[in-house]
Amino acid sequence: MSNNKPMPVATEISAPFWEGLKAERLLIQQCEHCSHWVFYPRRHCPACFTHALTWREVSGGATLYSFTVTRIATLPDFADEMPQMLAVVELDQGVRINTNLVGLDESEVKIGMRLQPVFAEVDGKGNRLLRFTGLDKDADALKTLRVVEQPVAAAVAVRQIALDDEAGLQALVSDQFSPWSNQVVVDQALIDTFAQLSGDDYWIHTDPERARKQSPFGGTIAHGALVQILQSRMKLNLGYEITGFSNMINYGSDRLRFPAPVPAGSTIHARARVKKVERVKSGTQLTLELNTHVLGSERPSVINELVILYM
Ligand SMILES: [Zn+2]
């Protein structure tokens, strides 16, 4: 799974709910005055407005109230969970919870079906989210973190090279690229966000229907500039670390090309090599050739000869 998924932030009022999930217990509030059950966590009872709310453990027995199947990730970080079954579940106490269904095939999901809670591990730090599954499923098996293996850069020993070590710096120059970085999904939602941000909302990026008919690529494609800046999301292990400088500046690019399109929905990754190291008046310039490819594609989508100035 991706490590960048946004996590709920517990507040003073909601903390007992999240702490309960960590302990694999479902705690919701009940009003001492009128017995009304309350969810989401609140400071007062929405039925009688008293503040006499008490946290009580409930079984998690529930019924499916509504659901939808999402096939496009809302954030690239959720691409490994597609399709997602987003649901509104009604606990036996009558409160409704927005959640996900897990361990169920789409064909098994029916409004009104009985559900049990899954205290789903999400980050290896003990945080859990409340999800639900069918009564005939193994909720314990489903709660364990599902790690999607990603071919990440193989461990490469990091050499430290001092900025004044001329021979050491020149030895970094190579025709060999680093191992591949982690992977990033470029979906339509991300392209739309970038279109909004940049003002470049040309139909070839933002109108899937028109692009299907008229685009030479058979669908929408990402902006070259978007794919270029996504290089920041890709962690590279270049095998070296330069030490002994006081400042490092992104000096721009010697060369920037977009040789191949990135269709919406593509997974991309990057690799790099040191192309050149030169002494200049203001310091030492290192030219890093950073190439982004669609997974499995020989031809790069972005060639960026990034100039980094060390002073
Ligand atoms: Zn009340």
From TrEMBL:
Domain ChsH2 C-terminal OB-fold: 55-119
Superkingdom per UniProt: Bacteria
Protein name listed in UniProt: OB-fold domain-containing protein
Ranges where the ChsH2 rubredoxin-like zinc ribbon domain occurs: 18-53
One Pfam family of this chain: zf-ChsH2
Residues covered by the MaoC-like domain: 182-283
SUPFAM superfamilies, per the entry: Nucleic acid-binding proteins, Thioesterase/thiol ester dehydrase-isomerase
